Amino acid sequence: MVTPFKKQRELFPTLSNTIHLSSCSQSAISLPVKDAISSYLQSWTENGMDWNGWMDEVQHAKNEFARLINAAPEEIAVLSSVSDAASAFAGALSFSTERNKVVTTDIDFPCVGHVWLSHKRRNAQVNFIPPEEDHSISFQAYEQAIDSKTLVTSIPHVSYYNGYKQDLKLLSQLAHSHGSYLFVDAYQSAGSVSIDVKDSDVDVLVAGAQKFLLGVPGIAFMYVKKELANQLEPLTTGWFGRQNPFAFTNQILDYADVTRRFDTGTPPMINAYAARAGISLLNQIGIKPIEEYLNHLSGVCIETAQKHQLEIASPLDIERKGSNTAIRVKHASYLEQHLKSQRIIVAARNDVLRIAPHFYNTEDEIVKTVEAIAHALITK
Ligand SMILES: Cc1ncc(COP(=O)(O)O)c(C=O)c1O
Question: Aminotransferase class V domain: from which residue to which, for each copy (predicted)?
Fold first, then answer.
């Protein structure tokens, strides 16, 4: 299959001399993102200050993220990281009734678990579902863990470790049938896997911009369903969470309507420029064709790894995985550096090397990378 996005690949000049396969960690830099960052610097240089223009860009970034996940722009808040967003949601919950249980998993990125654990001092009872041997969580395990005391079920959409993907609709139905909210960490899926928060009916979904959203660190988006957002009063707050941030009324804590109430202080404006450009590019192409192509690349990666008898830590069923294919190796960090010296960028995590393509990658790059790993394992 020829890459369907040959034209868009030209927007990523570094790909001419680098194989960039680490979108589960940091995607490649594109011209639109670079230009967007420059335009912030230019605005600052030329205008000295353009508060309104910079704030508009933050709103545009929210709009693009809303479009990506089929939410309304008013249902999106901007924070600095997924850790911040998870903390913001957790802090807005009350654990003081019988319904004080958090059901989460051991395949979550640790920062989410850390956030829930920090609320034990507020009476949260935190239960971690252990993974199966293949790093998945069975539906039965969720059925056993979620009950009438569960306040929130907290899951990753796609695992950071091996790309294992979960069915959001099925899990939101299960959580809701017990009266639990569903909180989703979509940092490993947003930008590479279709997300429809209305169809899947998740309550809260968070993602940062650095990975498949093609942006930079320091900005994360938080979707909170409108009906829920209006019932919550965040503990972590600031002037941008007020009805009118510019009213400067020190003694009035009036929460803004809908999810803007989760905004806190001055937003990460320069990061919003980058995020808007990255997500806008994804929206222009469309996530569905991107997802289809990434599934194809997953197939190529798995097939090539099997041919070279590499140990695959990801699901072999493409329907159950995101872009990331994890290859189990000894000395993953060392191998990551070794491949980098050949201008092949992959991402090590514990005992795996993660090969995480985006739409701009080619079949050829996947094959070359897997061959380079196989070769390194034989010769090192
Ligand atoms: C799924 C997932 N969630 C959260 C994080 C960490 O997010 P942050 O550093 O924005 O808190 C990562 C980072 O790799 C991740 O992969």
Answer: 29-348
Choose one of 264, 283, 302: the last residue of a domain: 283
Q: Which residues in the chain come in under a pLDDT of 70?
A: 380
For ligand 1, is residue 109 a contact (CB within 6 Å)?
yes
pLDDT at 379: 80
The conformation of residue 310, written as its DSSP 8-state character, comes to P
| CA 235/CA 242 separation, integer angstroms | 13
Q: State the CATH number of the domain containing residue 72.
A: 3.40.640.10
Beta bridge partners of 105: 129
Tens of pLDDT along 86-122?
999 999 999 999 999 999 999 999 999 999 999 999 9
DSSP state of 29: P
Task: Please check whether residues 113 and 92 belong to one and the same domain.
Answer: yes
CB-based burial of residue 65 (10 Å sphere; 0-12 exposed, 13-18 middle, 19+ buried)?
Answer: buried
Q: Would you say the CB of residue 83 lies under 6 angstroms from ligand 1?
A: yes
The tally of domains found in the chain comes to 2
Report how far ligand 1's centroid is from the alpha carbon of 187 (Å). Answer: 6
- Tell which atom from ligand 1 comes closest to the C-alpha of 186: 1
One domain, residues 47 and 175: yes
User: Of all atoms in ligand 1, which is nearest to the CA of residue 84?
Assistant: 11
Residue 80 Cβ inside 6 Å of ligand 1? The answer reads: no
Put the strands of the sheet holding 352-355 in their side by side order: 311-312, 325-328, 352-355, 347-349
Q: Are 380 and 50 in contact (CB under 8 A)?
A: no
* Residue 174, in any domain of the structure: yes
Specify whether 14 is located in the same domain as 43.
Answer: no
Is residue 1 in some structural domain? Answer: no
Query: Is residue 231 in some structural domain?
Result: yes
Q: Which atom of ligand 1 is nearest to the CA of 25?
A: 14
Based on the domain organization, do 13 and 24 belong to the same domain? Answer: yes
Q: Which two tokens mark 225?
A: 């369903």
**Which value, to the nearest 10 degrees, does the dihedral of the CA atoms of residues 64, 26, 373, 5 take?**
30
